[in-house]
Amino acid sequence: MQDKENILIIGAGLCGSLLALRLAQRGYQVTMYESRPDLRTTDISAGRSINLALSDRGLRAMKMVGIVDKVLPFCTPMYGRLIHDIQGNTFTSNYSGRDGEYINSISRGGLNGLLLTEAEKHDNVTIHFNKKCTSVDIENTTAKFKCYITKEKHEVCADLIFGADGAGSALRKSYYLEKKFLFSYSQNYLTHGYKELEIPADKIGNHQISKDHLHIWPRGQYMLIALPNLDGSFTVTLFLSYDEGAYNFNNLTTIEKVTEFFKTQFPDALDLIPDIDNEFFNNPTGALGTVKCAPWYYKGKTLLMGDAAHAIVPFYGQGMNASFEDVVVFDEILDQHQGDWETTFKAYQKIRKKDTDAIADLAIDNYYEMRDHVANPIFKEKRKIEMDLEKTFPNDYFSKYSMVTFNETINYATAMKIGRAQDKALLNLIADNELDTDANLKTVLHKVQQQTKEILQEDKVAGLQ
Ligand code: FAD
Fold this sequence. Notes:
Helix 12 (377-392) packs across helix 14 and helix 14 (412-431) crosses helix 15 (441-461). The chain has 15 helices and 19 strands. It is globular. The protein has helices spanning 14-25, 56-64, 68-71, 108-120, 170-178, 255-265, 267-270, 276-282, 307-310, 319-337, 341-371, 377-392, 400-406, 412-431, 441-461; strands at residues 6-10, 29-33, 51-54, 76-78, 80-84, 90-94, 103-107, 125-128, 131-137, 142-147, 153-157, 160-163, 184-199, 213-218, 223-228, 234-241, 285-294, 297-298, 302-304. It folds into 3 domains: 6-74 and 108-186 and 289-367, FAD/NAD(P)-binding domain (3-Layer(bba) Sandwich); 188-287; 376-461, no CATH class. By secondary structure, it is α/β, with parallel strands linked by helices. Helices cover 40% and strands 23% of the residues. It has a 7-stranded mixed sheet with strand order 6-5-14-15-16-13-17. Strands 8-2-1-12-19-18 form a 6-stranded mixed sheet, sandwiched between helices. Flavin-adenine dinucleotide binds next to helix 1, strand 3, strand 9, helix 9 and helix 10.
């Protein structure tokens, strides 16, 4: 095996460009092909989430490649959720009781552009835009591309091919079409899709609602969320069924119906979205789904990473963070088996897949939590207790949300296992009126810890872990 192989990366999105940067820092020859134009010189934001929540797992990856100081200026911290009820009343729910734990709203284009620029600073990285991969010959590590500009087709041969080409991955498609090995694959769509709208900045460029929060308008069967942008605007996302309920994407076909929907369900938001008529009918409706597959690799030749290996629904704000963490985990494993790619890929999947499966399931849980439970009195009480526990015992209590979002040293699978048991314990204790928070918080902590331990033990006996 040669020392520094030629590596081909398909897809210059968030995962691909971070991977290119890291592999270049390690001295590999990296060539990356992207189907879309260069987003630093063309506006191609329409249709994809314009901003995203970046949290500790993603920031850890930025630290790994040494660019965290360049990323932070793109960030707007969000300290908690600000929930809007149907009457226009609001209440807040912090993400953590500990100081310094918050998530960051960041522009997808800004972050992706920065990663591309940082990767391109290395002489051993070449990036080609407007070139779509149409298929991969995995045995011969050769990928076929079509250029959108010249319409010409060509082939690229490499020592290794990484598929970082997102949820619709061409490499993953070649895995099941080539039928060279037993490839398991599932794709599950939600019955809901999403559409992005905008709350513009006010006349002097300020945010019209709190920029320190992720805003949620939970309505059970549907919801709106809004994340702040640096220019004073908010990107608003409507999550709505395609065809169920009184209001759905299929029946909101006229301006009158859309206005009626927003007037009755999100009256305070409607006042802030002046261009709703245009945006609702011109912005695309995106699908939401979960992709799970295995194996991610073929021999020591190809590997899927990021959404290509494990696309998830966006409700935990972890898809990008998980894709970035993929690169961190991969990088650590690379150190252990350098040069032996099959062993590296195998070890990477072994350690990583249980975690990406876990965050996929947690993201579905959060779908129900955000659109419904956040407004439920028992859920609100639970979150209040969790905030008090985290504030008073910052080293002893970590909510599920904190473990997933702010504790990059706890893997997703462990966060899910402990977090779910802890949630169950808290909800049981609240329902049974066994928590007197005014009395003694230490007793509350002990009761929650004890009950969590018992639930974990029961789950173990029942073979649920
Ligand atoms: P992508 O970002 O999809 O990048 C893949 C790249 O490959 C693209 O540039 C694409 O053009 C290119 N490509 C695709 N096919 C080909 C081909 N055949 N040939 C060449 N190039 C190709 N995550 C978070 O962490 N926080 C959030 O708040 C968050 N919010 C989200 C909101 C929404 C509405 C959605 C849909 C997702 C959200 N995500 C969030 C998830 C996040 O967007 C993804 O997990 C992340 O983009 C995955 O990065 P990736 O590089 O693997 O895939």
